[in-house]
């Protein structure tokens, strides 16, 4: 069966978001855990199985790209046929695109092992559905992991950790302004803009900005696109003509 990137990976049915978690069994690996998202037929796929080998594929691309623009890297990776419309794979992309662009820019001398470290940290906190369940989208700790690695933040540290937390707080704010419903694609773009601004502030590094992004994911959104409430929405040609009248 073709991989379904919007709904249940097993049967293609719509996903059910539970207000109270229940014990579920991953249909792929057999892991039993408390989950909040399963399909209407009861299929459940754990986070480890959701991305499967996609993590290594994304990481490989990030480590080998020569692109300096984080938005170009992110848009290309988000368009991959196996990357879901919504899901923490988008958080990996946000962290990876940002660090790859910084690495290729050259000022900070970023090594591949630092990129891998940031993405591994991201995997530990970017958990499917927790944007709505806890108020923290996985893209926020993804960018936080990037700055933590770059600044050397840790619990015993002072300004390194404070700066990292401030960046994460700013990311949460910009994401919150785009919510209703949640959209990982919009969140990635907004987070990269905020991360780039912080990179310039902390490291005096200027990354290329995005030009016009005309989102092509509207029809794929399982909870309905925000359309003209989103700054990245591309009006259908016939609607744009009507607005011009």
UniProtKB/TrEMBL annotation:
Matching Pfam families: DUF5714 (PF18978)
Record-linked InterPro entries: DUF5714
Domain DUF5714: start-end pairs: 61-233
Domain of life: Bacteria
Protein name (Swiss-Prot/TrEMBL): DUF5714 domain-containing protein
């Amino acid at each position: 069966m073709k991989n379904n990137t919007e709904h249940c990976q097993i049967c293609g049915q719509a996903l059910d978001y539970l207000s109270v978690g229940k014990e579920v069994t991953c249909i792929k690996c057999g892991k039993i855990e408390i989950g909040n998202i399963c399909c209407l037929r009861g299929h459940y796929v754990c986070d480890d199985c959701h991305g499967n080998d996609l993590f290594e594929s994304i990481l490989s691309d990030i480590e080998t790209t020569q692109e300096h623009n984080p938005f170009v890297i992110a848009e290309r990776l988000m368009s991959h046929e196996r990357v879901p419309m919504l899901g923490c794979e988008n958080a990996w992309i946000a962290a990876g695109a940002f660090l790859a662009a910084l690495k290729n820019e050259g000022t900070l001398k970023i090594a591949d092992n630092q990129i891998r470290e940031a993405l591994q940290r991201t995997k530990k906190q970017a958990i499917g559905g927790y944007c709505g369940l806890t108020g923290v989208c996985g893209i926020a700790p993804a960018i936080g992991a990037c700055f933590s690695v770059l600044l050397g933040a840790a619990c015993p540290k002072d300004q390194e950790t404070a700066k990292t937390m401030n960046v994460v707080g700013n990311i949460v704010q910009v994401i919150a302004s785009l919510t209703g419903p949640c959209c990982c694609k919009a969140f990635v773009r907004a987070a990269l803009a905020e991360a780039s601004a912080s990179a310039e502030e902390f490291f005096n590094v200027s990354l290329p900005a995005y030009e016009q992004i005309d989102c092509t994911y509207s029809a794929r959104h399982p909870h309905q696109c925000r359309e003209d409430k989103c700054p990245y929405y591309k009006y259908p040609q016939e609607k744009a003509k009507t607005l011009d009248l």
